[in-house]
Amino acid sequence: MESNYLSVALIKGHRPITEGSKSNEITDDKDALACVRNNGNKCQMYPCINNNGVFVEITTPESTFGYAGRFVHRDSDLGIQKPLMKTIGDKGWGSGCVISDEYKFVYIHVLKSGGTATKEFLRKALCGEDDKDCQRVDPHILRPHGCKGAILDYPDYFTFSFVRNPFSRMYSMYSMMDGFPIERGQKVTDAFSFHDFVMNPEEREQYTTMHSGHYDHQTSFILSENKCPSFDFLGRVEHYDEDMRTILNHVKATKLLQYLDRIGGSVHAHPHFCLFTKPANTWGSDKKHSIGGDLREEYKSKAVTKTVAAVYKKDFELLGYDKRRVLVCVICWIVAPVIVEFVAPETAVLVVIASDAAATDTVSSASTSLRYTPFEVYRVPKS
Length: 383
Known about the structure:
This protein has helices spanning 115-127, 147-153, 166-176, 188-191, 194-199, 219-222, 240-250, 254-262, 295-298, 302-311, 313-319, 357-369; strands at residues 5-12, 33-39, 42-51, 54-57, 70-74, 97-100, 105-107, 143-145, 158-163, 233-236, 330-334, 349-354, 373-381. It is of the alpha/beta class.
């Protein structure tokens, strides 16, 4: 008898991050650390593994390798272990850093990369959901701090940040203009297209009062002039919840882990469920100016794609995102209990829609051999 429901399984194309493989064998670059060595007067990042305390350079089969999603290991020949980043945030709960003496960590806010949501999560978990600026708790638990002082004065604290695919970040910048129109009440994105926003950056100030710092490279917030990292781990917005849990486990942040579990294990509820009417972007957890849109549609213009790839070349290369692909999610329809073998790019999610529960079970078991792990399973009425 045919079911009146479809089973929907979301499968993420990555595995949990580790702090270094203990073997000389490596199957893909997701086992690797981002090692940093001195190369003249600049830092050079390369993939390595931890082989019983000895960090060994490796060659990975991946076409891209970058800092995103990895722990950092600094070679002993580096002088300053954590130098100041090129762009220094100093506006407290706005663009500044956040420090916890209780768990000995520093969070670096990269504009347009989940910073507002991250600070809200940390604040609600450690200060209480109704304490907006952590005024009612000991400042050693959590407090805002200028990033210059945070890096220089707390070099032994675990430092982390988050970044995102430059293609989606560009669209997030565009969306944010609606919150800062020059003419009150104007919806900027109705008057100024995404194409023009990318191709004619000199015209942006005609439509928005948004600070130009939001257009800075992500790497400028987390790397020094000499390309040396100011962080110990760099999470990815695309895998936010998993990477946040990796960070919290590393610093043994019991209260934060308990709060994460209490809210369902997800700071961003179903961030990749783009099958239905999920907007392509949000900008700030309490903002209501986000706009809908399909990134694949917005990037159909080769000129737009090439321009973003060229402008944010450093971000693509140093963070490890593929500038050849603009892909938010891929949908595969399965009408029989079989799995379609598919290797998703790092920023993609494989969405499998099965016509019955048996097909979904097969998808779940077969996904294990492809190194995919089921994220969510839904049952939705057939239209």
